[in-house]
Amino acid sequence: MAAASALAGAFTNLAVSAKVSSKRTNVVAKKVFSARSAVAKRNLTISNVATGPKGPATSAESSDEDKILADQGAGQYTNVDPEIRRIVPVANGRVVVKVVYVVLESQYQSALSAAVQQLNANNTQVCFEVSGYLLEELRSEKNLAQMKKDVENANVFIGSLIFIEELAEKIVAVVEPLRAQLDACIIFPSMPAVMRLNKLGTFSMAQLGQSKSAIASFMKKKKESGGFEEGMLKLVRTLPKILKYLPSDKAQDARNFMNSLQYWLGGSTDNLENFLLMISKAYVPALADMEMEIAEPETFPEIGIWHPTAPAMYEDLKEYLNWYDTRKDMKFAKDAPVVGLVLQRSHLVTGDEGHYSGMVMELESRGAKVVPIFAGGLDFSIPVERFFFDPITKGAYVDTVLSLTGFALVGGPARQDHPKAIDSLKKLNVPYMVTVPLSFQTTEEWKDSTLGLHPVQVALQVALPELDGGLEPVIFSGRDSKTGKSHSLQDRAAQIATRAIKWSALRKKKNVDKKLAITVFSFPPDKGNVGTAAYLNVFGSIFRVLQGLKKEGYNVGNMPDNEMDLINSVLNDKEAKFASPDLNIEHKMTVKEYEKLCVYQESLHENWGPPPGNLNSDGQNLLVYGKKFGNVFIGVQPTFGYEGDPMRLLFSKSASPHHGFAAYYTYIQKVFGADAVLHFGTHGSLEFMPGKQVGMSGNCYPDLLIGDTPNIYYYAANNPSEATIAKRRSYANTISYLTPPAENAGLYKGLKELKELIASYQGLKDSGRGPSIVNSIITTAITCNLDKDIKELPTDADADAKDMDSDTRDMIVGKVYQKLMEIESRLLPCGLHVVGCPPSAEEAVATLVNIAGIDREDEEIQALPQLLAQCVGQDIETIYRANDAGELAQVQLLQDITEASRAMIGDFVNKASDPSGRLAAGALGAFGNMFGGASVALPWGDSLKGTKFDSIDVAAGRKLFDYLRFCLEQIVKDNELGALTEALNGEYVLPGPGGDPIRNPKVLPTGKNIHALDPQAIPTSAALASAKVVVDRLIERQRVENNGVYPESIALVLWGTDNIKTYGESLAQVMLMVGVRPMPDALGRVNKLELISLEELGRPRIDVVVNCSGVFRDLFVNQMNLLDRAVKLAAEQDEPYEMNFVRKHAVEQAEELGLSIREAATRIFSNASGSYSSNVNLAVENSSWNDESQLQEMYLNRKSFAFNSDAPGSGMETKTDIFKSALSKVDVTFQNLDSSEISLTDVSHYFDSDPTKLVAGVRKDGKMPASFIADTTTANAQVRSLSETVRLDSRTKLLNPKWYEGMLASGYEGTREIQKRLNNTLGWSATSGQVDNWVYEDANDVYMADPEMQKRLMETNPNSFRKMVANFLEANGRGYWETSEENIERLRNLYMEVEDKIEGVEN
């Protein structure tokens, strides 16, 4: 597998870098380029296509863009009929050579067709019949059948860049049986299985990638030296010398292959003519004796600088500038921005460069200079380093880099080298924009698609460049369906050009003159919510940013002296009375001004009527809320606008911006004149506005709203999925910020008392006091409501421990102790993060303990609990299982291990703290000498001395602590403010992964441009192994609790961020439930499936109903395809119904709904394309719902859009009947928790996607399904019931003094966070009914019954306090909380008091 992957990567590089001696010189090439460029320039204006309202296109009538659709193929990504490429000659007695070609992209289509037409018109001996296919077209069975027919009658088959596994398999299946009868089969870089089809006489690659082949041996040698690709290139360069030692026939065939490669890469019409003649003459028997004049391959520079109006290509920057700066057709300002363009040579040599010319002209017409570089290979870092640096100063010559290749900077579809790319880009240190050409769709198909860009392109040409730090994946060119030629999309090119120039301007403008619009959010749009962001003290952070900007020389005007003054100046008062004059109005935009400046405002009338409307309006003007400080505007982003309207929530497929929202961004761009906008925190509404998922047109609202303003976005490091949506849909340069430091939840009140009682019992259990202590433990545990979690607790009032044997007493105490330790050790983020403020030493300990708790096989690091367990001759997994079972001795042992871990790491961290208790980079250096031989001091000091763990494996311990030292250094290296400065200076912000810092410490340090991962890399084998543990435990727990009966169907949710953090664990869970294993292809991309036999599975195949979040749908379309294929594969197995519930239900549904079994097995659902969430969360947050059936109807309406792998281009299609039918068979609802930072009540997403009560409503028996939550936040994965998890969450957060005091210390925003947890608890009551009465009762005691607490909440955020009071009253009114009339009366009085104070009514 590895060999095949390396080989494919090598051939990708080899194919585009191979050099064969040529008789022709570059002078010829330059003439060819110059002539083509002139043609391109003349034709440029008719190859523009408009896709949005940014100005009229300069194209001719729309008929110039022919859209030729086949009669078949509905639901595919492209429906172009391959027949348009068929060329059938008039033979006139000539030999007819039949050629079939399949290529990934269309740039060869035009040049190849021209070559064939020319040969057929002029050659007297031979003519060519040609049929051509683009790889993507072979998803259609009709096209595949036609290709097979063509190959059956062909002389020559040509394939190039066949890198999509499922389509590569189809090509092999067609061509391999016919290979022997073909005269020649030439495959240029492709998947190894396709490369093995090569056949030129004696030249063959049939052994390619196989372990015993000569090439495989060569690969192994090169792998050891670390230079396989370079070795392959050397092999090719020296091939001419080697050939003379081979038998002449073999040498000639090998030479013919190398020449074929050169002809193909040369790509010009002349080269392709000679390629066809050479192959035909050498291998078509009828032409063997004919005399033909065949020219050697025409070569072009490997790297260089190209310009559509230049007389030649240049291989030196000075030469290019000598020409450029003396042009007579264009004059540029002295300080004109310089944009470096990165191009693919293949488009230049094939004459398909019209889209490049269009981009050059767009930039130059706006006053920017350009340096368009190209490479023949796929390592564009080489020309970047050669041509983008000033030859005199050695600094960057360009101000922004704009890649038009669509690929990663180093590497193509098979292999990438992101570290090398990042090194080059960091050296250059300018913004790096990666735009996208339409490769697999025609322009019309893309315009008509709700998905937007083809998913394969999203994976290859959006996700992979993001790993290099690429920004702004805007489509810049389209493809003509008839000719295959690329053309410029005028409004997209204009958008890209203006944005590139704006980024460039940040490098040139003085800081004192730069204008920055800082945008904060208010969500939900209730009073007290201005400055909403996950885990972030927004105003405290903005205050630090303003201080930083002031030091950097920005004009911050009369900046407030402190955070509270800042809050007051933006909000006018702390209450933040939203949508009223109490919020500071910075600008009143008249309707006339709005209509003049906002070019798309008419498109909003359908939803919102004419301006100004009712939102962000005083009835006459549109109001922009916020406050200016010099050149910095702090503004409040308007909300979606429909949160309080239950009917609109119910029926809206997606939100729409209202006039107030449009006016806000119009103000930023055209009135305030911002040089950049900084969106502050996770997250706002801009990136979730309607439009295509990826690759937006000029009609998509995020594109219209952001306009040409560079967008910088502070985003929580643990949320890479939504950060990726912001990158792709609002063109954001996302900068990560740290989540608050985690602490152990600890114990309080009765829970603390219980721990003390257990300690007493362990010391006195064998004395006469043992039973009485157990009685006290039982009574206290029941008082703490632990009887709901511990079924073994006797609740009978007459139960007495003295009547129990010692084993029973130990079992009860063990179960209570296990539950206490679960609560005590749970990690929770305390307080809110302030940008640029790293954690203290003490705050880092809990995080490091949890980092140390995970085995890291890739680094060969053993987890600390395992090292400690080995000291007492045990295995940690055994201890975990015994602990879960409540075995008292093992619960105590695990607690001892936990305390030893904390002591070791506490000692270690204390050595790294400065006198103030903060972590300091300088302090870390002081203990660098702790990592060495046995004689050197131990990193954990004396913490294990005299304990049962002092025999720890020192070498393994040092290795672990060396890793922890690295993690500690990353925490200290915070660059959150530094990255903002870099972005505002127009510099390159280093990219880095987002995710959970505990699972993946490479997320640290923060202040990186967040990216997700290669979507085709998941699920990993490790994720599959973790998923199996959870699936086995889930199914077994339900079976045990359901009298030995297996669940037949499980409804579960897939989240984008969770799958990024865990590398696809929940994705793998779905496949394992149905008994299918995901498999990697030859390049390691996970896109294949293997059915697990029933024997191996050892249980029935469990049916699933999968609800994908809107973000998962956007990021992982390829994985949705895989999931749908997996379920359908299971459904089509001829197996007994009692062993295959997928098939059982599909057969029932097929009968019930009149469908095929395959269609009835539809199980992968989400929102409509461009739409997010069920809106249940919005309804709950705004109390805008009448009864639960309304919430359930909302869920059904918005989540019943299905993905179909048989018609993947159709996007999400409404399948409400199948959705309801599938849900009616569900026995279990299920979700995953994978990170300690986000739990069930922290965010509204979890209950928003919970279908528990909906399932009960659609089941014929009305039975409530069991509901489970998998918790993989620690190494000891758990499957708990939903109610158990809600209780755990409530005990560790809402009711926990450590948590709420941490929040209250953050003031205004902390009070809002407390209210949010209460609101989300209410949400769980509404969707699942799994919240115990005591949770509300205890919360009421904490927050409402205590006058001192009332006062604190009222003073910090009165509106959030009012909402809390309302939440309690609503919980009671809706029947979720039964309480005393005294409590309700107090709440009613409190509500009126708070209301009066907010409204300024004096009593």
UniProtKB/TrEMBL annotation:
Protein keywords: ATP-binding, Chlorophyll biosynthesis, Ligase, Nucleotide-binding, Photosynthesis
The species this protein was found in: Micromonas pusilla (strain CCMP1545) (Picoplanktonic green alga)
Xref: NCBIfam families: BchH (TIGR02025), PRK12493.1 (NF009140)
InterPro entries documented for this protein: BchH, CobN/Mg_chltase, Mg_chelatase_H_N
Catalytic activity: protoporphyrin IX + Mg(2+) + ATP + H2O = Mg-protoporphyrin IX + ADP + phosphate + 3 H(+)
Domain CobN/magnesium chelatase: 262-1383
Domain Magnesium chelatase subunit H N-terminal: from-to ranges: 98-258
GO cellular component, one term: chloroplast
UniProt pathway annotation: Porphyrin-containing compound metabolism
Pfam families: CobN-Mg_chel, DUF3479
A single GO molecular function term of this UniProt record: magnesium chelatase activity
EC number(s) given by UniProt: 6.6.1.1
Name of the protein described by the UniProt record: magnesium chelatase
Membrane-spanning residues: none
Assigned protein family: Belongs to the Mg-chelatase subunit H family.
A GO biological process held by the record: photosynthesis
Enzyme class: ligase
